[in-house]
Every structure is written in C-alpha cells, then in structure tokens.
Write a structure and sequence with these properties.
Two copies of one chain form a homodimer.
Chain A (H helix, E strand, L loop, with lengths): L3 E2 L9 H7 L11 H16 L5 E4 L3 H10 L7 E6 L2 H12 L3 E6 L8 H10 L5 E5 L1 E2 L4 E2 L2 H11 L3 E5 L11 H4 L3 E5 L11 E5 L1 H9 L9 H8 L10 H17 L1 H21 L14 E5 L6 H12 L1 E2 L1 E2 L8 E5 L6 H17 L8 H11 L1
Parallel strand pairs in A: 1-12, 3-4, 3-5, 5-8, 8-9
Antiparallel strand pairs in A: 2-10, 6-7, 9-10, 11-14, 13-14
Helix pairs in contact in A: 1-10, 2-10, 5-6, 11-13, 11-14, 12-13, 13-14
C-alpha cells in the first residue's frame, strides 16, 4: 500500500531533499562545505526575516528550547511562560530544571492566549527577563497572536520575546526583526521538509545583550560560541552535515516557490482541511484560532479518535496523529505544513469520510471533499 | 576529480548507508519504526558488549560528553580528567561549565596517560566521583590503556570510569561490562560509517546508581528520561530518524563482517599506514601508543603539514586532517576507521609519496607503499 505521512512532524520529504542528502559526505572544514553552510545561513536569514545570524544546531527542537533558556537567563530569574498545551508546558519544565522561576499562564487546551493576560502578568512581575511561548501549540492546533504579544511585551517591559516557532516558521509569516521577536526557533522536520536532527535559532541584538549577563550553565548549546563560529561558516561542534546539505535543497525549493506563495499555500490547505472536516459535522479543537500548520479535529461523540487514526493507516496508508496527554483519544491531528499540496488534502478528506462511515459515524460521501474543493475553486 | 575522505570524522559513507537513509521518512511513533529502533538497540548492545541499554541521542558526540557529566555529578563534585589533547581538554571545560572540580592529569601531546598517574590522583583525591578520559585522543592519534585504567580506578576507588570512545568504538574492542567501563560513548560519524548527528552512550548499573543522586541541571540530555523511553522503543524527544535508519544498515554491515574481523581490519590498516609513513622517514606523533583509528604523522622538518594536506587534496582529491591547536602545521592525520580497506591505504600512501617529493622532501617512489604491502602480505 502507498504510505502517506500527514503527521505534525516528521512531515513528508521531497525526493529532491532525499537525493541531496544521499550526496557523498563532505568534511565540515572542507572548502566544498563553505558554500553549503553559507547558503544555509543566507536562506535561514531570509526565512526568519532577520539581519542577524540564525544558529544551526545538531539536535531536535527541544535542544534549541533549552538553549533559549540557558543562554539568556540566570538562576533565580523570573520569566513568563504560556502553557496552552504539551509544548507550552515544556517551557515551564525547562525553566524548572535550571532554577528559573516561571510565572505560568495556563490556557485551556484548544484556546490561544489572550495578550491581555500577558500584560497583566508583566504588570504583576515587572522584572521578568523573558516571555516564552509558542507560535503554534502543536498539541492543540492553536496559533497564538505572536505579533500582538511581542508588542505588548515591548510596550510594558524590558523582557525578551521568545517564540517556539517549531511548527510556525515556514508556515506563516514570523518576521523576527519587524515584529520584535527576540528569539525565534524551529526544527528541521516540519515546514522545512527535512528529517529531524537539526534545530535553528535566530537571536536579536536585545537577546544577545542579555546573553552577556546570563550565568546558567551550558556547554553543547552555547550560543555565543556558535555565533563566533557561524560567521566563519563553521559550527562549534561537528554539524549534522547531511541534513545541512538537505537544508540547502529545501530552502532552494522554498525560494523557487516564493515565501509569500508558501504562506498562501499553507493558508489554502489549512482552510480546505478545516472546511472539509467541519462539513462532515466534526468540530475543530481550536475553533477560534486554528493554526495553518495542522488541523486538530474532535472525534465524534463516543468514537475514540485512535480508531479513526488506525483505520486511516490500515485502509489507506495515511498516518495522522492522535491527541497527546489529556486530548488523547479525543482528537486527531492532520498536518499540512511542508511538502503538501491540494491533492494531499483531497484524498485525506475522502479517505476520512470512508473511515468515519465504516466506524459508524454517518457522513454523506463527498461532503467534506466537496467543501474543500470549493475553497480551492474560490 | 574523484574525492576521498580520510579524515578522523566524518568518514566515508558506504552507498548502502546513503541509500538506506534515502528511504521515505517514517514517523517515530509508527509501528514501522519500532523494529528499526529495536534492531538499533540490539546492535548497539552487541557493539558495546553490554547487557544495558545504549541511549541514542540526536546530537554530536560532544552532547553525549556533556550528558556524561551532567547526569552523574553534582555541583562541587570532584573528578579526575585526562588531558592528552584537544578532546581530553574538553572534559575539563565541560566540568568547569557545570561547577564540577576536575583534577586534570596533563599528558604531553602524543603520549598516552600512565595508569600510575591515575592511581596517584585517586590516592590524593579518594572522594572523586568519576575518572573521565578518551579511548583514543583524536587530536594526537594516541590510544589510552582503557582496560588498565578501568581496573586501577575500580581497585582504588568508587569512582565511575567514563570513556569517550568517539574514535574508539567499532575500531577496537571496548567490552563495557567485562572491563568495568561505566560510561562509554561514541558518535555516528566515525567507525559507525554514518553522517554526524547521532551520539550513543552506554551506562552501567554503577553509573545509574550515581545518576540517582546527581543534581546538576539537564533537560535535553536527560538520560533517565531517555532510558524510560528506549525500553519502549521510543526516545524522549524526536529522534534523528533518517540517521537511525542508516544506523540499522551500518550495524548490519558490521555484523556481516563480524566484529572480530572489523577489529582485525582496523589493526591491519593502521599497521600498514604506520609502516608506510615510517618507511618514508616520517615520525609518528604518537609512536609509543598509536591508535588504530587514525595515524598522526609528523611533517618533515621545515615543511608545513598544511602544504602536504592541500597538495593531497588538490592533486589527488584526498582529504586528510591537519593537527589542531599546538600541533597545527606540524602533523597530519589520516583516518582508517570505518568504511576503509586496503586499497584506501595503498593509494593514499602512494599519493603521499608523490606529494612529498613534489614539496621537496625526497622519498624513494614506492618505499612507503611497499612497506604497507608487506603488512598485507604477512
């Protein structure tokens, strides 16, 4: 059976990227690697919309999240974190591990954070060093109002704005410099159409200033050391060479398509997916602020979402994701970030209709796909 | 021009590994990934010769080194580290970054550590928690007496024996359980014939015991969390999936060859390389304890080793490595760990003879290759 991966990371890899990575290995200090790293640096600056360097780490996104705490804070520092799901919770866990005091804004799963809550928290704690949140909370499919939050933070404090853009960067616009995002990070296995194993982190001048006084311990994720190296087209430690070669190809594909077109495509696919599942009578898990990265849909009353997921896998070779923690069994999550196009959404929705009917939830055949078609026609 | 990589990491990739990694991406929670991770686990236990789990990290080897400090020690703990080169120095730097007091045994570059020095250091500091050293110090091409050191440590203390086997594992025997190595770590881009981006770390029961009382901060490199996951064929954070698929193939290749044959091949290639460069009148940088992983040779008096390296690259497409730090310009390093065989050594030595002659250091044509041939004939 043909296999399709529509999970919110890892995502499908273009054959062009797979082939690029199958290139014989190059030494990371060899002259042939210099243009590879230089192009990657330029491409990442273009993608992050920043004049500053974007560091390239050999780790998953969580490593970059840890570094976003340890390179800018000191023991006993206060920060604000937004916990609207499993990944927002992680900010608090990292802070705890390093003795940073996090004032956690808890948000109901499926909701986005109200920027006013951040304003209140800033007024309560005027000495916070940073505000840590997600662009998209991958566990719930919600998008947070990054631009508004950044403005509120800068209008009301000296704190840095730290955005986990793991499922945001490359899906929708997150112009670092223009919006005043001080730290923006992402991983390779989402919109960047690569296997997992690389993380990227952009850092503003304001954040670099904070780095100078930060005393938390760090070694592998030492950003000032990485900066000193990356300007010379090097990395502090051996880089994940084959993945960086793949990165060159995926950035090239994004440039060929054009960044605005990449964002438009993601908007269109997300809108079609949402309209499609809603036409089947399913509710969105994040109805007010759904992300264009993935769609989280609530399973019909009395039907375990795990059954929908395993039937899609078994009958159609389509892998989507279950909910995590408290949402497990209640929702399913379909990704449309990265190497996806209209056809993926159409066959996924049609397959979903068949599976739902088979599982006893009656759906008029074609109703979801039809709704998606209308989005594409418009 | 055909290109050849004979650097001490990254090393050449077999086409089988490149092809394996070009497999369409699999989700790390998908049933198809379970046997991949399970085989990798089994293969790593086989390679490390341990009954315990070997953790798989998405990072370069340095990440595993950091974790080997942060997961077992607490602030103010004392350890002994062996600094016989750039990588030995790194143990001290990591300890310093985390407030661990390192009694550093400084060894002249090119020399291996005298186990008696470790005994003395243990007697001076009976409360040390660990002894940290390299199996092979990659910057000098020296091999340390791992078995003897492990015995001395266990006979004289309760400290754990921590071995950076980044350029040792898969080159020569380092049977963890038999020798009492408590922590053994390596990276993917050496004898394991993979691109950089994965690190592996085996941990003894004694070390796990120490982990229970360790209080240094950690998050991404959290080994107890990784252990809880790996026994369920999972990883704490998104694994570097494509590299792990490649790992399956490289372990398969090592099993097909047989571990003892792998070690024999490395011994033979190393011996031929040493005899070859010595026949050209060059001195080994680590003459008393040369590693079978790489050969470091001293450039002829008055000839910058960088010139030899750049000529080999320019005229023959062969990339070898310069010395690092104090050895830069003085030595060159040729690797023979991983996917190498007799032919690689023969053409490298012949090319080296041509290059040396061209640079004004007169070598009888064929004298080095001839010496290597004799090793292979024997």
């Amino acid at each position: 059976m043909k296999k399709y991966l529509l999970t919110p990371g890892p995502t499908e890899l273009p054959a062009r990227v797979l082939l690029a990575m199958a290139h014989p290995i190059i030494h990371h200090r060899a002259p042939e690697f210099l243009p590879v790293l230089e192009q990657a640096r330029e491409g990442l600056k273009w993608l992050f919309k920043t004049k500053n360097e974007v560091l390239i780490l050999a780790s998953s996104g969580t490593g970059a999240m840890e570094g976003a705490v340890t390179n800018f804070l000191s023991k006993g520092d206060k920060v604000i974190t937004v916990n609207a799901g499993k990944f927002g919770e992680r900010w608090g866990q990292i802070c705890k591990a390093y003795g940073v005091e996090a004032d956690v804004i808890n948000v109901e799963w499926g909701q986005s954070v109200d920027p006013e809550k951040i304003k209140e928290a800033l007024q309560k704690n005027p000495d916070v060093k940073g505000v840590y949140f997600q662009a998209t909370e991958t566990s719930t499919g919600v998008v947070h109002p990054v631009k508004e939050i950044a403005k509120i933070v800068h209008d009301n404090s000296n704190a840095i704005v730290v955005v986990d853009g793991i499922t945001g960067v490359g899906v929708f616009d997150l112009p670092m410099d223009e919006w005043g995002i001080d730290i923006l990070l992402t991983g390779s296995q989402k919109a960047l159409m690569l296997p997992p194993g690389l993380a990227f982190i952009g850092i503003s001048d304001r954040a670099w200033k904070l780095n100078e006084t930060s005393t938390l311990p760090r070694f592998y994720f030492n950003f000032s050391k990485e900066l000193k190296n990356i300007v010379k087209n090097q990395t502090a430690y051996t880089p994940a060479i084959s993945l960086i070669i793949g990165l060159g190809e995926s950035l090239k594909m994004m440039k060929e398509e054009g960044l605005e077109n990449v964002y438009k495509r993601h908007t269109l696919l997300a809108e079609a997916t949402r309209k499609g599942v809603q036409a089947m009578g399913l509710k969105l898990y994040a109805p007010k602020s759904p992300s264009n990265s993935l769609t989280a849909a609530v399973a019909p009353e009395g039907l375990d979402s795990g059954k929908i997921i395993s039937s899609l896998e078994k009958d159609f070779g389509i892998r989507i994701a279950n909910g995590q923690d408290q949402a497990k069994g209640k929702i399913f999550r379909v990704a449309h970030m990265g190497y996806y196009d209209k056809s993926d959404i159409l066959f996924m929705l049609a397959s979903l209709e068949i599976v739902l009917n088979k599982l006893g939830y009656k759906v008029e055949s074609g109703i979801g796909v039809g709704a998606a078609e209308k989005v594409f026609i418009a």
